[in-house]
Amino acid sequence: MIRTMLIALCLFISAIASTYVQATPVDTFAFSSAEKQKRALSLAHELRCPQCQNQNLIDSNSPVAKDLRLQVYQMVEAGKGDDEIVEFMTSRYGDFVLYKPKLDPKTYVLWIGPFVLLLFGLIIGFVFVRKQRIVNNSQVELTEADQQELAALLKQDKD
Amino acid sequence: MKKLILFVPLMIFLGMGFFLYKGLFLNPKVLESALEGKLVPYFELEQLEQSDKVITNKDLIGKVAMLNVWGTWCPACKYEHPYLMVLARNKQIPIYGINYRDERDMALEELKLQGNPYEINIFDKDGRLGLDLGVYGAPESFLIDHQGIVRYRFAGPIDQRIWADTLYPIVKTLQEQAVKDGAS
């Protein structure tokens, strides 16, 4: 009996917790379809708030973010495509609002840089490994004098 | 040659160090303006002082001017205000105010108390013009040339230093250009 009550309580708490997690911050907006809502929310998640900088449009409470959020919702509702909405935002606030910057000459370093660094690392690593293997594999030739010295040293050690 | 390759990581390190060090002194709040080089966006809004008078983007064309986004709710605008008064008194540049997301009565009261540096005041109650200008806070100022093209955007309060170091040189060039083109 107590166990079932406990389980029920747990379920109840988790249900409340999950509704809190899903709650959007301030505004409510009526979408005509669930598909549109999903698209608008994912877009607003991908766009950065120009005011608070490290939050997306959904997370931010700033008035600008609220405006832009609403703008995204309205544009989705009006049947605009994702590209069109992103273009609307970047033409006003610059590429800054994109968490994932576009690939253009200004961002080549950003996109390709890590691969270039990786390539450099691999090349350098390769060169070092090769060099060491060559050193290990080459037989060291001992001259007669070296042999005698070695024998003398070993003998010394034994004594 | 083989020795040189040993210095490649050091070079990369120094290069990255240089850029990261420089990055320490950049202000992340300063965003590039997507609007520079473009016309002031289309708008039709009421004048702050007279609700029956409509101002459009065409009214801003003809002179080198400064658009200044402000609001009574914005403390930095209050800090900036005295310097705008100085600019207006010295007739340095016509300043067009954009009263952004504000209450008309409060804005008018503020101008009455603190002085009005604006030649025209546009009442952007719901921030639509601000949105088209890419405004993300206040105060923000836009320098426009005589053709109504946005040439420079400055985010933050203008003071003596900002005006002398940053804005005035641009204004001077724009004004010279305007004179050359035969505009006032």
UniProtKB/TrEMBL annotation, chain A:
What is this protein's record name?
Formate-dependent nitrite reductase complex subunit
- What are the boundaries of the signal sequence? 1-23
Where do the CcmH/CycL/Ccl2/NrfF N-terminal domain residues begin and end?
A: 16-154
Q: What does this protein do?
A: Possible subunit of a heme lyase.
One cellular component (GO) term of this entry: plasma membrane
Q: Which InterPro entries match?
A: C-type_cytochrome_biogenesis, CcmH/CycL/Ccl2/NrfF_N, CcmH/CycL/NrfF/Ccl2_sf, For-dep_Cytc_NO2Rdtase_NrfF
Q: Where are the transmembrane segments?
A: 108-129
Write out the similarity annotation.
Belongs to the CcmH/CycL/Ccl2/NrfF family.
**Gene Ontology biological process:** cytochrome complex assembly
Q: Which GO terms describe its molecular function?
A: metal ion binding
| Keywords in alphabetical order | Heme, Iron, Membrane, Metal-binding, Signal, Transmembrane, Transmembrane helix
* The organism of origin for this protein: Shewanella denitrificans (strain OS217 / ATCC BAA-1090 / DSM 15013)
From TrEMBL, chain B:
One of its GO biological process terms is: cytochrome complex assembly
Family per record: Belongs to the thioredoxin family. DsbE subfamily.
Compartment(s)? Cell inner membrane
The UniProt GO MF terms for this protein read: disulfide oxidoreductase activity
User: What name goes with this protein?
Assistant: Periplasmic protein thiol
Give GO cellular component annotations, separated by semicolons: outer membrane-bounded periplasmic space; plasma membrane
Instruction: Reply yes or no: does the keyword Signal apply.
Output: no
UniProt cross-references to Pfam families, sorted A to Z: Redoxin (PF08534)
Please give the PROSITE patterns that the UniProt record associates with this protein: THIOREDOXIN_1 (PS00194), THIOREDOXIN_2 (PS51352)
Could you tell me the keywords of this UniProt record?
Cytochrome c-type biogenesis, Disulfide bond, Redox-active center
